[in-house]
Design goal:
This protein is an alpha+beta fold. Helices cover about 15% and strands about 30% of the residues. A 6-stranded mixed sheet has the order 4-5-6-7-11-12.
Amino acid sequence: MNPENKKIEPNEGSFVINESETDKESKKSVSWNIGSKEEQEIGKDPENPKSVFIESLDISSEEPQQEEKEEEEDESHGFAPTNYELMAQFDPSTLREVTKVKDIQPIRACAFNHDGDYFVLGTNSKTLKVCSLHNIVDGLIYNEQQGREQFIDIVFEMNNVHYGSVYCVDWSNSGQQIASGSNDKSIKVIYAPDFLTLQETNSETVIYSNGRYLTGEGDLPELQERLLTGHEGTVRTVLFHPVDERVLMSGGIADASLKL
């Protein structure tokens, strides 16, 4: 501060950062007085103030705006659309059949695993089939332009799962359990093996029936299953809890009930 409103000139005790004439219009200087303890009071020794002149940084006003614009662009790249927005943009005319899988009897139910690279089918032939989408994904990415045939790889097949047709299936969120319901009024829970390992170590479908493997190579895993009863008619739906897979919901026809 300069109580007498006098222009402060640098003296021998001052430190000055000079600026060129062309920069004076775009740059400002700020200063403050420093001195001995006796000179720290306002108005002391006005004839010989000790001042430091510091040249302010010349930052263009356009640069922060540019940075903000870049940050907005980065945020827009990381934006994930909601399911509603995806459905609003969906065009059914773009759908096309890539490939299909068949069974000797009607296929009544299917469910993906949590990662979406495998799915399980339940059929009227009392069978569960675990299929891989790896070839489809790889084919769409790498081979589509080469005209190679796309196919679904049936990795694992479990025959005679029920005494009747399989009406519903579900795959637990952890991927470790598969549940199926049937018109034999029962539910079967299977503790799933590592299907990726089965796929990598076997060139053909691994078939399991009535407690033993009919086909397969290498060290095949022990398969565990559990039978649940209690419905009075066909079990039409089964559903694992999304967090605690020890909780299984099921619904039947004849008793018109939902069991947990």
